[in-house]
Specification:
Layout lengths: L5 E7 L5 H12 L4 E7 L8 H9 L25 E4 L2 H5 L10 E4 L12 H23 L8 H12 L5
Parallel strand pairs: 1-2, 1-3, 3-4
Length: 167
């Protein structure tokens, strides 16, 4: 494995909950092997307070988190990306910019907890479920032997993670 961390971008439409949580989780779980970012095709302009609360409750850093447009990562000077993962179905169906670095891509769709209506408990539960699903997938990804897999094998592993399968 090279000394350079892998750059990973998580995409969602609003970049307010799922992609933000994924960014924080990978930066925490990746033990310096990854540099995670997040962005949205139509950013909400703020991080969902339920996502922030859940991250803080799990003792994960929230300083500097913001809802960003995915165009930031397609501009000259943006980090070369190794991986781009969509975590919502809407973003997966949109035409994405051309990413620097010719990254590998996969779709890891997760229901949007920010769209859940109901009691405060129901909303918190939806955020917890999304967080837990992201945590499981990111754990599988972070433990892949990336340097020893050929591109086709790696793509199969990434796709399997998105289907909640054990790679």
């Amino acid at each position: 494995m090279s000394d350079k961390p892998y750059n990973v971008l998580f995409l969602c439409t609003g970049n307010s909950a799922r992609s933000i949580m994924a960014e924080v989780l990978l930066n925490s779980m990746g033990q310096g092997r990854f540099r995670a970012y997040s962005a949205g095709s139509h950013p909400a302009g703020r991080v969902n307070p339920h996502a922030l609360q859940l991250l803080e409750k799990n003792h994960l850093p929230t300083a500097g988190l913001r809802s960003k447009d995915w165009a930031e990562f397609a501009r000259p000077g943006a980090p070369d990306l190794d991986f781009v993962f969509t975590v919502c179905d809407r973003a997966a169906g949109e035409v994405c910019p051309v990413w620097p670095g010719q990254p590998m891509t996969a779709h890891w769709g997760i229901p949007d907890p920010a769209e859940v209506e109901g009691s405060e408990e129901q909303i918190r539960r939806a955020f917890f479920q999304a967080f837990h699903q992201l945590q499981n997938r990111i754990g599988l990804f972070a433990n892949l032997p990336l340097a020893s897999l050929d591109r086709l094998s790696l793509q199969k592993q990434l796709d399997a993670i998105g289907k909640d399968s054990q790679p």
